[in-house]
Design brief:
The structure holds 2 protein chains of 2 kinds.
Chain A (H helix, E strand, L loop, with lengths): L25 H12 L9 E5 L14 E4 L5 H11 L4 E7 H7 L1 H10 L4 E6 L2 E2 L5 E2 L23 H7 L4 E6 L3 H13 L4 E6 L11 H4 L4 H4 E3 L7 E2 L5 E6 L2 E6 L16 H8 L7 E8 L5 H16 L4 H5 L4 E4 L1
Parallel strand pairs in A: 1-2, 1-3, 3-4, 4-8, 7-8, 9-13
Antiparallel strand pairs in A: 5-6, 7-13, 10-11, 11-12
Helix pairs in contact in A: 1-6, 2-4, 2-10, 3-4, 5-9
Chain B lengths: L1 E2 L2 E9 L4 H14 L3 E7 L14 E9 L12 E4 L2 H7 L8 E5 L5 H6 L16 E5 L1 H8 L7 H5 L2 H12 L5 H10 L4 H20 L7 E2 L8 E7 H16 L3 E5 L6 H8 L6 E5 L3 H13 L3 E6 L1 H17 L4 E6 L16 H6 L8 E4 L5 H16 L3 E6 H5 L1 E5 L3 H4 L42 E3 L14 H17 L15 E8 L3 H13 L4 E6 L1 E3 L5 H5 L2 E8 L4 H10 L4 E4 L8 H13 L2
Parallel strand pairs in B: 1-8, 2-5, 5-6, 6-7, 10-11, 10-12, 12-13, 13-15, 14-15, 18-19, 18-21, 21-22
Antiparallel strand pairs in B: 2-4, 3-4, 9-16, 14-20
Helix pairs in contact in B: 1-6, 4-6, 4-8, 6-8, 7-8, 9-10, 9-14, 11-12, 18-21
């Protein structure tokens, strides 16, 4: 292996047969990740894919890298320790809305809080697929499922708000119907030092088909998504004729025929208030796609290893024999 | 000065009275004077229970001897009670005819009522048969510190040193070590050094003056194996044992842990030793702690997780994963009283079944148990060694009693006794053309340990059943049965990697007392007592639980009666009877307390009569 590896997508395809349902959004995500891995300048042997349990969590079996298919919800803990043990590794965690936000909710907020230098892809299809169709923490209230035949009573998590609340230093959103956008987003995530959290709108053809239809359907997608770029005003629409303006502190859709571009909300990846506004844009508003937040901060695994080096520098390399003989000792003749 | 072979002293007072410190000073001084010792701290679960109540009583028992000491003693010869609650909590356990030193200043109406007494206990029939010394410990301490610039509250805090001074006089202890400790501890505050030393000496002088104490006693130095000694408690020994194991294996040590009583001290100790290549991760919960250890193991560290019963229950699913991954890691269970939250600060051995069987599916782990505080060092090393040699997770069991209890420990020769540990980690890149199978096997059935960062060995591990050899996901019925049996066989075969089961005493006879884990001190002394009387009783103390030593069946079947003594409702007895059909009887104690030597001796005598 050379120092500057050049890979083709096929280098990342494992010998295992992919077993998602035909038409599943996971195929496109897998393909985009495999493409993205050719572009990040990291060695294949340094890559580790870690997952929990769920449809998406089969992902590591299909990547020809190191990989761990773990237990339900706990992937962040494995990923944290892999990175703490060897900070040189490129660690990707694959999770879904059930795995990451329900059973693994606690671990997810803590890995984000610690800002461990890993990348997390959340496949959000708003349903439990592997267990055959129960409502998940991101399912919309009222959804009829096998476990909610009269409609789900649960309020839903907004993954973006949750991540930001946990102190996310990198949050991005992308969509399984746009491979180019996915690849770009994954590459950006890999570059970020700290926990990069990517929500992918993913379609489950069997149990929650077309849940992201407004954002993916050719007929509606341009009016219901806005591609955000740092430093640029929020402009969207098939004809790029609409923008987002803050009116009474609320993001509001305006026609560019009525409002000058200079009055539009300008994206700032480092501004936490802007990130919160973008995170809350749903429903009638176009959903932002791209990097909502990106800000440098201290990174847990680096600090952990730096601390070891610091203590060694200050106190010298520890010695077991000296430790055993420290404190009060006495000799019995 | 009269000579004693041994003496047991219990320091007892309110949680804030500094009794743990007082007891530790007494035991350190005694160890330095050459006595054999054993200690037992006994403190409430509440950090600050209401002052003056029985719930808030904190005690520290120390047993010092001129001959072999293995337990903190059955019944205190001396009770130091700093308040009425301490008297109430401990009176029942004091040896008849023993000495009770009371801080009489605290025996006012309010404290007497808080302790739950109807009226003053002083002079009542329940105090008869003891030698009671009423000392004005608080007021005399204040008096001794009249010239100190400290405020009265701080002065009164020195009263534990006054009490310590009294006991130092009574048992001919030297003051130097404690004075040196005070100077080091409070070096930056000379007024505190001065006050504590003055209180210590005032207590000594008071005891020397009053006639009530009469003679002082002497406990001569013990005849113990020559060598250099230090004191050590089980949790410290556990922590150090793992550092040694990592060094012996040439690996980094990684601890993933979550705070829990009585295991947290292992986390505290290991987090101090970053300059020895120790990484500690305080996880968000017990599950994450265990999972982090598995992640670290996958990445190439000697990985451990530490907890106590409730935490081990939470780790169960992850431990099963480590088992099916076939990765090395050690889970430490420092047992406490259960079930559920149970008795967090009390000792028990009731997690044996949990450690053996507490995972879904057929999920065997290596299980070992430490017998004494110092033995935790060896068994931490052993658990690591066996796990690394077999690529199977191991469980190390200790308990609150040996975790917090301290004993003199002969400092080992690391090179001779704790040499290199072989492990299965592959080095460097995969040679061109060589086939790599992540689940191929060596003579121990252990698989290779390929870690991320090594080119050519990229592979995936998972919790789904895997095909032998490749490790690819497999739902094949025959393969599943094969793999379940193979993983069991791997653990069984580890019997060839452990020492044979020893017997203390004759290898056949009337009664074989079987014990395991932290009860060794009491079972050994009980058996020794009977052997000294010519009784045909031997001891089989088990440290390697899964697998058991290959000669175990022969050992068990060489006696007329086998009795398993354990601090639970008969879990080891059940395992032995199921495995060897040996018809073992059980002796259970489930009170959150360790065995007394005397109760074991009585039980064995009864059993000898009914042979």
């Amino acid at each position: 292996m050379t120092d500057n590896p050049t890979y083709k997508k096929k280098d990342f395809i494992s010998d295992q047969e992919v077993r998602w349902c035909p038409g599943c959004g996971d195929y496109a995500i897998l393909s985009s990740v495999q493409m993205a891995m050719t572009k990040i300048g990291k060695k294949k042997e340094d890559m580790v894919f870690v997952s929990g349990i769920g449809c998406s969590s089969r992902f590591p079996y299909y990547m020809n890298t190191y990989g761990m298919h773990t237990i339900h919800g706990r992937a962040p803990a494995f990923a944290t320790a892999i990175k703490a043990t060897n900070p040189e590794l490129e660690v990707w965690q694959i999770t879904g809305d059930g795995d990451g936000l329900s059973i693994g909710g606690n671990h997810l907020i803590h890995v984000i809080r610690r800002n461990v230098n890993i990348n997390i892809i959340l496949f959000n299809n708003e349903i439990y697929g592997l267990t055959k169709g129960q409502y998940s923490p991101t399912s919309r209230p009222g959804l009829n499922t096998k476990s909610s035949p009269y409609g789900s009573l649960d309020r839903a998590f907004n993954p973006a708000s949750l991540a930001l609340g946990a102190g996310s230093t990198f949050f991005a959103r992308t969509i399984d119907t746009d491979p180019k956008h996915m690849i770009d987003t994954f590459v950006e995530a890999s570059k970020h030092e700290g926990t990069s959290f990517i929500e992918v709108f993913q379609n489950c053809v069997i149990f929650n088909d077309k849940v992201h239809d407004l954002q993916t359907n050719r007929a509606t997608r341009d009016e219901h998504t806005v591609r955000i770029e740092n430093g640029k005003p929020l402009i969207f629409g098939k004809e790029k004729d609409k923008g987002i303006k803050l009116v009474d502190n609320k993001p509001t859709v305006v026609a560019l025929s009525d409002v000058d571009e200079s009055e539009l909300l300008v994206h700032d990846e480092t501004n936490p208030i802007v990130a919160q506004i973008l995170a809350e844009m749903r429903g009638e508003l176009p959903v932002p796609l791209g990097v909502l937040r990106r800000v440098p901060d201290v990174v847990y695994d680096q600090q952990l290893n730096d601390q070891l080096a610091d203590v060694k520098a200050k106190k010298g390399e520890g010695d077991m024999t000296a430790l055993l003989n420290s404190g009060d000792t006495w000799v019995v003749e | 000065m009269q000579e004693l072979d041994s003496v047991v002293i219990r320091f007892s007072g309110d949680s804030g009275d500094g009794m743990q410190l007082t007891g530790t000073q007494f035991s350190n001084t005694s160890a330095l004077m050459g006595n054999d010792i054993a200690t037992f701290p006994d403190f409430p679960a509440e950090i600050r229970a209401p002052i003056g109540t029985v719930a808030g009583v904190s005690g520290f028992q120390v047993h010092i001897g001129a001959s072999e000491i293995n337990t903190p003693g059955d019944e205190p010869d001396v009770l130091v009670a700093m308040n009425p609650a301490a008297l109430k909590a401990n009176l029942r356990s004091v040896k008849k005819g023993g000495t009770i030193i009371l801080n009489i200043d605290s025996f006012d109406a309010k404290n007497i009522e808080k302790a739950g007494y109807e009226g003053t206990p002083l002079g009542t029939p329940e105090m008869e048969g003891f030698k009671v010394i009423e000392a004005q410990i608080t007021s005399q301490t204040l008096e001794a510190l009249t010239e100190s610039e400290l405020d009265n509250k701080s002065k009164a805090r020195c009263k534990n040193f006054y009490a310590l001074g009294m006991t130092y006089f009574m048992y001919g202890r030297e003051l130097d070590a404690t004075i040196k400790w005070v100077e080091e501890k409070f070096g930056k505050k000379p007024e505190l050094v001065d006050a504590n030393v003055k209180a210590l000496k005032a207590g000594w002088n008071f005891a020397d003056t009053i006639e009530a104490i009469g003679t002082a006693y002497k406990v001569p130095a013990a005849r113990i194996t020559p060598g250099k000694y230090r004191q050590i408690n089980g949790n410290t020994a556990t922590a150090w044992g793992f550092i040694q194991a990592a060094h012996s294996a040439g690996l980094e040590l990684f601890l993933g842990s979550y705070p829990i009583t009585p295991a947290s001290d292992v986390l505290h100790e290991l987090s101090k030793h970053k300059n020895m290549g120790v990484k500690t991760f305080q996880a968000e919960d017990e599950i994450a702690a265990c999972c982090s250890a598995i992640g670290a193991a996958y990445a190439g560290a000697l990985a451990i997780t530490t907890s106590s019963g409730p935490g081990i229950a939470l780790k169960g699913e992850a431990l099963g994963l480590a088992m099916i991954y076939e990765l090395p890691m050690v889970c430490v269970n420092i047992q406490r009283g259960g079930p559920s939250t149970g008795l967090p600060t009390k000792t028990e051995q009731s997690d044996l079944n949990l450690c053996m069987f507490g995972r879904n599916g057929e999920s065997p782990m290596i299980v070992v148990a430490a017998s004494k505080p110092g033995d935790c060092f060896e068994m931490a090393y052993e658990a690591s060694r066996l796990s690394l040699e077999t690529m199977t997770p191991a469980m190390l069991m200790t308990d609150g009693y040996i975790a917090n209890g301290a004993e003199p420990w002969k400092i080992p020769d690391l090179t001779k006794e704790f040499g290199p540990i072989k492990h299965k980690q592959l080095k460097g890149a995969k040679p061109e053309g060589e086939e790599f199978l992540a689940y191929s096997r060596d003579e121990n059935l252990a698989r290779p340990w390929a870690i991320p960062g090594q080119p050519g060995y990229e592979h995936r591990v998972g919790g789904l059943e895997k095909a032998d050899g490749t490790g690819n996901v497999s739902y094949d019925p025959d393969n599943h049965e094969h793999m379940v049996k193979l993983r069991q066989e791997k653990v069984d075969k580890a019997a060839s990697l452990i020492p044979a089961q020893g017997v203390e005493g004759e290898e056949s006879g009337d009664i074989l007392l079987v014990s395991w884990g932290g009860t060794y001190g009491a079972t050994r002394m009980a058996v020794k007592t009977l052997q000294d009387q010519g009784k045909k009783v031997s001891l089989c103390h088990i440290k390697y639980i899964n697998p058991m030593p290959a000669n175990m069946e022969k050992v068990l079947k060489s006696f007329k009666k086998v009795i398993v003594a354990e601090l639970n409702n008969g879990q080891m007895r059940g395992i032995l009877n199921a495995k060897y059909e040996v018809g073992a009887l059980g002796y259970s104690k489930i009170q959150g307390l360790p065995f007394k030597i005397s109760e074991l001796v009585d039980m064995l005598n009864r059993e000898l009569e009914t042979l």
